[in-house]
Write a structure and sequence with these properties.
The chain is an all-alpha fold. The protein is built from 7 helices and no strands. The protein has one domain: Transferase(Phosphotransferase) domain 1 (Transferase(Phosphotransferase), domain 1), CATH 1.10.510.10. The chain is 52% helix and 0% strand.
Length: 126
C-alpha cells in the first residue's frame, strides 16, 4: 500500500508508520483483513473506504456488522482516525503521539462529538 512512498525512500518514516497503523485500525473497524478482496471492485481497502464514506450513510456501511448500536459512535470516531492516518498526502497525517492521544480520548470525544465525514471529500480517491 505504501509502494509509491517506499520506492522513493529506503528508510521508513513516521508518516509511513502512521499509514500502516491506520490500515491496521481500519481492519479492526471493518472486521476484516485489508488483503481480503473487495469482490465487486478492484480498489485497495483505503480507497474503497474513502469512496464509501462519501456516499449517504456510507460510513455506517463500512463498519463491522457485528458492532452493536451502542458502540457505533465510538467506531465511527475510530474510522475518522483511520482516515486521518491514511491521508493521501503524508504531510496531512497526524503524528503517532497525536494518534495515541486521539485513541485515549476516544471515550470522552464520543460523548460530545458528532463525526463529520465531509472533511474527507477533498482527499477522496475516485
Amino acid at each position: 500500500m505504501l509502494i509509491a512512498e517506499t520506492k522513493y525512500s529506503k528508510k521508513t518514516t513516521e508518516q509511513m508508520d502512521v499509514y500502516s497503523f491506520g490500515v491496521a485500525l481500519l481492519e479492526l473497524v471493518r472486521g476484516r483483513q485489508a488483503e481480503q478482496a473487495l469482490q465487486s471492485e478492484s480498489l485497495d481497502i483505503v480507497k474503497w473506504v474513502r469512496r464509501k464514506v462519501n456516499i449517504t450513510n456510507g460510513e455506517v456501511q463500512v463498519l463491522d456488522p457485528k458492532i452493536t448500536s451502542s458502540a457505533q459512535q465510538e467506531m465511527l470516531v475510530a474510522l475518522e482516525i483511520t482516515l486521518h492516518c491514511t491521508s493521501v498526502m503524508p504531510e496531512k497525517r497526524p503524528s503517532m503521539s497525536e494518534v495515541v492521544k486521539s485513541l485515549q480520548s476516544l471515550d470522552s470525544m464520543t460523548q460530545t462529538a458528532v463525526v463529520d465525514f465531509s472533511a474527507f471529500e477533498e482527499h477522496s480517491v475516485v
